[in-house]
Amino acid sequence: MERSANSRNVENYEMLAEYYDALLQDEEALSLWLRYIEEEPFLSVLELASGSGVMAGILKKKGYDITASDISPKMKEASFKNYDGEYLLLNMTNYHLNRKFDLILCICDSINYLYEEELDDFFRCAYEHLNKNGRLLFDMHHIKRLEEFKDQYIEEGYVCGIPYQWTIQSEPEEREISEHFTFYTDEGMIQENHNQNVFEIKDVVKHMDDMFRVRYIEDFIEDEKVLIVGYRK
Fold it and tell me: Are the beta carbons of 192 and 90 closer than 8 angstroms?
C-alpha cells in the first residue's frame, strides 16, 4: 500500500463522511432496526445522529414525517444522495425545536459518543420533544465489545479507489473503544480518530427511570449491540 510522507489529522467525519456508506453500511442491521421501529404505530420522527441519511431516506419513502439531524456538516453533505428532506445541524444533548414527535431515533451506536455525564441531557432533550407515550429508540455497544477488541483489529483495503486502514482497539478498564481511520490520498495521508464510551445497561436505565418506561433487547445483535426503547411517561 503506497504511503505518502505528508500527513494530517482531521475532525470526526470530516474525511470518513465521504466513504461512510461504502465502509460501514450494514443491510442486516438496517432490517433489524426497521423491524423494531415499525412494531408500534407512529407518524412523526426525529432522527438524531442521522449520518449519511440512509434510515431517514427509508422512512421518508415509507411515508413517515421524518426530520433528520446530525452534529457534523460533512455528514449532512453526504446525506444528499440518500435523503432529500429536512436535515438539521444540532447537538443531541442540547436542542430546542418547539415541536414534538411520536418517535425519536438514534441508531448506529451513536449514543456511545457521549460520556456518561452527558446522558441526562440526552434523555431530557428527548423527553421534552416526545409526545406523551412517544418512544425513544436507540442502540449501543454491548459490553462484550470491550473484550472483543482487547486485541487490536486491523482492516486494510480500498474504498472508492483510495487505500485505507481501519483499526479498532478497546481499553476495558476505561470502558472505551477507539477507532482509527487512515486514508492514503493523492494529497497525502489523512487520519481520523473516533473514541466511544461503552455503558452497562443498568447504568443507562438508571438515567432514564424518571422520564421513561424502559425495555431493552440485550442481544439485539448478539454480543455486539443492545437495543433500548424508552416510552415517555
Answer: no
pLDDT tens for each residue of 104-158? 999 999 999 999 999 999 999 999 999 999 999 999 999 999 999 999 999 999 9
Cell 470502558, residue?
A: 175
User: Of 88, 125, 87, 118, which Cα lies nearest the Cα of 104?
Assistant: 125
Inform me whether the pLDDT recorded for 49 exceeds 80: yes
- Going from N- to C-terminal start, the domains of the chain cover 7-14+145-196, 16-143+200-232
Superfamily of domain 7-14+145-196: S-adenosyl-L-methionine-dependent methyltransferases (2.20.25.110)
Q: Which residues pair with 181 in a beta bridge?
A: 166, 192
d(CA 84, CA 116): 33
